[in-house]
Design brief:
Blueprint: E1 3-11, E2 20-27, E3 52-58, E4 66-69, E5 71-73, E6 76-81, E7 84-89, E8 94-99, E9 105-115, E10 118-122, E11 130-134, E12 148-150, E13 158-160
Antiparallel strand pairs: 1-2, 2-8, 3-4, 3-9, 5-8, 6-7, 9-10, 9-11, 12-13
Length: 171
């Protein structure tokens, strides 16, 4: 079964609606790391070749769980030469999970991985879950507005979690 190693917190101690990110390596039997695992894929896709990675987050002792999909991430170095950008891979790809908490306080998380060999959760139990703390306010006024969604007052428009309208600029 899959194993998690080299877990690294990339951005820790966020405020509400700010990014919390972890990166890690997964030893797996999957041959297509950028495809989700499925035992019954559509025609032309090899069964069991992919891997599904999720972050499981809770701030109420696992009474409720928020599942955040993970993804394969390739670190790179960006350089500019004249008017051309160059992106050069640095190191091997890793998996990442990014999460924006919508409440302050103590949060716990675990990683869930499924491949053709089965499912594994890291750490193995809720009692040994990893933790981080979320502050109440952000120094960034734009981020502190919250997530963007359809307006509760008029479904033709968008608004932020705090009720502020979203005024998009476009054509």
């Amino acid at each position: 079964s899959a194993k998690v190693s080299n877990l690294k917190v990339v951005s820790g101690s966020p405020a509400v609606f700010e990014k919390y990110e972890v990166q890690f390596e997964v030893q797996t039997s999957a041959t297509s790391l950028d495809m989700p695992y499925t035992a019954n894929p559509p025609a032309g896709v090899q069964a069991g070749a992919g891997i599904t990675v999720n972050g499981l987050f809770s701030n109420d002792g696992w009474k409720t769980t928020i599942t955040q999909p993970g993804f394969l991430y390739q670190p790179y170095q960006h350089t500019a030469s004249g008017d051309k950008d160059h992106f050069v891979p640095t190191g091997k790809p890793v998996f990442a999970v990014r999460f924006a908490p919508k409440a302050a306080g103590a949060w716990q998380y675990r990683l869930s991985i499924q491949d053709a060999q089965g499912s594994v959760t890291y750490p193995a139990t809720n009692q040994s879950a990893l933790t981080f703390n979320v502050g109440a306010t952000s120094g960034n006024a734009y981020v502190s507005r919250g997530f963007l969604g359809v307006s509760q007052n008029d479904s033709r428009y968008f608004q932020f979690s705090n009720g502020a309208p979203f005024v998009g600029v476009g054509f």
